[in-house]
Amino acid sequence: MRQKGERGKGKGEGRRWKGDGREVGTVAVVGASARAAVFSVLRSGWAAVAADLFADADLRLACPVTQISSYPEGLVDWLANAECDGWLYTGALENFPELVDELAAARPLLGNRGDALRNVRNPLQLQEALRERGLHFPETRKSCNGLPLEGTWLLKSYRHSSGCGVAELHAQNTAQFDFVQRVVSGISCSAVFVGTSKCSLLLDVTRQLVGEPWTRAGRFQYCGSIAPWPLAKDIIVQQLRDVGDALSSLFGLVGLFGVDFVLDENGIVWTIEVNPRYTAAVEVVERALGISAIDAHVAACCGREVSPIPTGGQSSCGKVILFAKQEVTVNEKFFRWVIDQLDENMRGSIADIPSVGTQILQGHPVLTLFASCEKSNCQDALQHRVVEVERQLYV
User: Fold this and answer.
1) Nearest-CA neighbor of 271 among 152, 189, 177, 167?
2) How far apart are CA 17 and CA 101, in angstroms?
């Protein structure tokens, strides 16, 4: 067990991969929360450095990390001075295409550039492109004039992530959002793809947890994933593959990307949003399948052939983000209780661990919890984990 304050450099320090004129050895990860992608990088055998909003304790124990106070603009100077061979981003940098291009001018980018982000993150363009392929996308408009206010339309802002920019349309809140979208009823899911120059590969599908009261999340806030999520009919899988291929060919998406969708009662896949980077669902898929998806991501971004990825994990894996039910300060006792549950690779059932003395406001994320179990009981296991952690946290 590493002690607090020690930093790892990754089990495969020195591994290099040359492709498409680029050579990758140390990968920099940037975004609001870099931890999940960093651990995937380390499991793949590369060294990692990171910069994000939190610089949580388990990330500090795993690799050199910098907490960026002037986020996201402060990432420019950080990356220019970082010791790395390439970099990738996590949420929600896809909402800053100009910044992504500025960062890409400093160091080789393993991911999608600003032009792809501008297009695929514009719901009007996405709506038109998918409908032309015979695929389903909820009716989306720029204006809410004349629309009913009885809960059948949602206001959306594409300046946020994880559902923070979503609200039900009513008369008092129309100025805060960019688009309005018709509600589609069904099961909230997410599909994880790897885009290549030829096509896209569907890795897996997760069930999304959204606004679950037991996590203290907001109504439309993403709070977790469960994988794999079984799809009973081949026609559903084919719809997803058609969506992935459309996104790769029409928008040029490369590497890992996620598609949030709703599966309605008729088995129709309704694409809701595209996240063109390592998403929150990826690490759940990685745990369920026993893989590191960064291998496929780097290969695709370097123009190399993506190796076959195993499917059909034997167990279900879930994660949940716990939000603070009240303002709380992390004390030494709680911190030690959490750290004692990690293995030598900083892997366990708890992640995104705040340091001692961290003040967490009500409604803000506390940490992330995992559970591996039988598919029918995974959510129950996560709920039990939440109760256990809250019992330790609020004393």
Assistant:
1) 189
2) 23
Q: Is the peptide bond before 92 cis (omega within 30 degrees of 0)?
A: yes
* Domain locations along the chain: 17-110, 139-182, 186-313, 315-395
- Region class of 357: left (phi > 0), else alpha (psi between -120 and 50), else beta: left
* Residues 57-69, mean pLDDT to the nearest whole number: 95
Q: Are strands 179-182 and 187-195 parallel, antiparallel or unpaired?
A: unpaired
Cis, bond preceding 72 (omega within 30 deg of 0): yes
Q: Which long-range contacts (CB under 8 A, 24 or more apart) does 329-336 make?
A: 329/357, 329/358, 329/359, 329/360, 330/354, 330/355, 330/356, 330/357, 330/358, 330/360, 330/393, 331/356, 332/356, 333/392, 333/395, 334/392, 334/393, 334/395, 335/57
**For residues 153 and 147, is the Cβ–Cβ distance under 8 A?**
yes
**Residue 123, preceding bond cis, omega within 30 degrees?**
no
Name the token pair of 383. Answer: 């709920």
pTM assigned to the model: 0.90
Q: How far is CA 251 from the centre of its chain?
A: 20
Express each pLDDT in 97-121 by its tens digit.
999 999 999 999 999 999 999 999 9
CA distance 57 to 75: 20
Share of the chain above pLDDT 90, in %: 71
Closest CA to 380 of 336, 318, 324: 318
Cα 180 to Cα 167: distance, rounded to the nearest angstrom: 10
Question: How far from the centroid of its chain's Cα atoms is residue 322's Cα?
Answer: 16
CB 229 within 8 A of CB 207: yes
Which fold does the domain 186-313 belong to in CATH?
A: D-amino Acid Aminotransferase; Chain A, domain 1 (3.30.470)
CA distances from 356 to 36, 50, 287, 335 (A): 21, 20, 28, 6
Q: How many helices (H) and strands (E) does the chain have?
A: 11, 20
267: left (phi over 0), alpha (psi -120 to 50) or beta: left
Angle, to 10 degrees, between the axis of helix 282-289 and the axis of helix 35-44? 40
- What architecture is the 17-110 domain classified under in CATH? 3-Layer(aba) Sandwich (3.40)
In the chain, the amino acid numbered 274 is V
Query: Assign residue 141 a region: left if phi > 0, alpha if psi is -120 to 50, beta otherwise?
Result: beta
Spatial distance between the Cα atoms of 386 and 321, rounded to a whole number of angstroms: 9
